[in-house]
Amino acid sequence: MAILGKIRERSLFLIIVIALALFSFVIGDVFTRGGFGSEANSIGEINGENVGREEFAQMVEQQKSMSGGRGTQMQNVNGAWENLVRQKIYKAQLEKSGVTVGEKDVWDEILKQSWVKDGAQFKNAAGLFDEDMFKEHIATLNDAKDDDANSRQAWLSWLDYERNIKNNLELRTYNNLVSAGLGATFKEGERYYMANNTKLDLEYVYVPYTYIADSAVAVTDSEIEQYVRSHPNDYKAEASRDISFVRFDIKASAEDQAAIKGEVEKIINDREEYSSAAKGNVNVKGLSDTDNVEDFFRNNASDIPLDNNFYTKVRVSPILKDTVFKLNVGDVYGPYKEGNYFKVTKLVAVKQMPDSVKARHILIPFLGTTNDPSITQTEAQAKTTADSLLTIVKNDKSRFADLAKTLSSDTGSGAKGGDLDWFVYQTMVPEFRDFTFENKVGEIGIVKSQFGFHIIDIQDQKNMQKNVKLATFAREIVASDETESIAYQKAETFASALTDGKDIEELAKEEGLTVQPAVGLKAMDERVSNLSNQRQMITWAFNSESNVNDIKRFDTEGGYVVAKLTGKHNKGLSVGAAKASLRTKLLNEKKSNLIKEQMKADNLQEIAKSFNTNVQSSKAVSLGSPILPGIGRAEEVVSVLVYLKENKLYSGIDTKNGVFAAKILKKDSPAALENYAGAVSTVKNVNKTKGAKVYSVLKKFADIEDNRATFY
């Protein structure tokens, strides 16, 4: 009570302290984020244009909707970002080109969409598309946007659709501009034809870079760094992190498996169990003695659901096929282990059934079974129609095909008189399947499915054979709490030892564990090596407070991971994995210069002598067949020589692997053509492949600031 009294006496003082603390927290956050709401709401910038957090969140939701919810959160984030970058880059290029996609362009594009021009709700009494009716539809969406949440969402969805149409139109417009610029003229076609069909008789000397030993030239790290600085767009590197980690998987022990097997075995026979409701022991039916497997599965939680399908021998599990077909109905097999489950299986029923059926049907849908707005009849009305049709076809089967063509909503089979051809057991929905496989040829009847009412005529059946219906009760093999606790303690002990300075490789070796590296992780990654989604680990690695050699334990699907941050690499220019190839490139450039210095002679014989080699020759070489003996394909050389003159010495021609000196002895040009349309078409196709690379080039030179990792 004395303490409470002192707190009351100093309440004003405490309020002031708390207020100052909150103020410093807010101000600190403002300064660390660069201002009031500046970076806090910015996902990034694309060529100086800010991307707001709310705008981007909407794009992520759109991406999620387009993927049907199949993608992960990070896949949706990355997909939305890539789409946004593409849109912004293309829009900027269009503006530079003086091209604007206006409202009328967007409206005209919307009117071309099939759901608009073919929509029944937008057609007039004459059955023609009415633009005013479509405008009225949009106006109605706008007027109702404040009525409720659904109406608001409908209006926002329309605005998103309109925006997407504009974005796609901008992309297509820019690509069309690029394609137009990458066409081919008649003269280009002629030049291409002549160059590819001109044949050259050559004499040449080829000196590979290997002629000069690597030890004779040197490339320093500073030269590599200078090359990188002079080609910045080729060596931009994102920030990255390196991690080493050890897994502690939670796996069911032998004791866990034995206990689970015992649980499964226990449900086979009747047993006594205590019932809190009855306040005493009650008799519980086992799988073997139950007369109703549906009730049994309702009262006993199996880890796989009851399957009411029939199976032929080739379709049952390989573990069962040589056993269950020898059992009597009611017999139980097991327990047995299959995959990650212990199971027991009861033979519920045996039936002779075909392996395939030929049938035809007439489908009568009703409201709720289709998205077709023309379907307005209720289920009761559809049933009345189906019953009437059944009476007609039972009295006169010859009318079935014509009725299917005119009345069936399954227009695919309807066009063939309702014929579905041959199908196997697992093809059709259960109601349709059961009727056609469990009844005889010639039977006609009605079944109701998710698609409506089917009037079915069984026309033929093949390969009658024994089928079985099985009730399989299963328990998944999972680790016990005790086993999971042991794995947790091992991971904690391992992490503690690393924090105390133990080497991860040595400690893992002592414990019989494996250290796995994950190198070059990017800020927006979500996978770490062979682990499942580990966004939490990426976030930790990129946290500004995480330092090299930091240790952290993570919960993962099926276990734990102890990770060590082994490397932090900042954004900027970097050679990285390309360092070795870049060193080779610069070495070859230096070797090329030395070879060219030595090639300064008046004829090929002297050049060959200075390199202790021979003059080689080749006839009828062309761009269409640029093969040189002992060298292979040499497009680089032939593409240069084809435009040069005869009987002149050309030396110092660089190629990927060496330097050429060559002389054209004879140049045989092809006869001119009356029409070079074929060559023009080829050049156009070649140019199109170049046009496909336009976006990657534009993106390479764009100024993009990506802050997504701060929010996702």
TrEMBL record:
Main subcellular location of this protein, as a coarse class: membrane
PROSITE patterns: PPIC_PPIASE_2
Annotated membrane topology: Single-pass type II membrane protein
Protein location: Cell inner membrane
Keyword Membrane: yes
SUPFAM superfamilies linked: FKBP-like, Triger factor/SurA peptide-binding domain-like
Segments forming domain PpiC: 354-460
Molecular function as annotated in GO: isomerase activity
Keywords for this protein: Cell inner membrane, Cell membrane, Chaperone, Isomerase, Membrane, Rotamase, Transmembrane, Transmembrane helix
One Pfam family linked to the record: Rotamase_3
InterPro entries xref list: PPIase_dom_sf, PPIase_PpiC, PpiD_chaperone, Trigger_fact/SurA_dom_sf
PANTHER family, sorted: PEPTIDYL-PROLYL CIS-TRANS ISOMERASE D, PERIPLASMIC CHAPERONE PPID
Similarity field: Belongs to the PpiD chaperone family.
Name by which UniProt lists this protein: Periplasmic chaperone PpiD
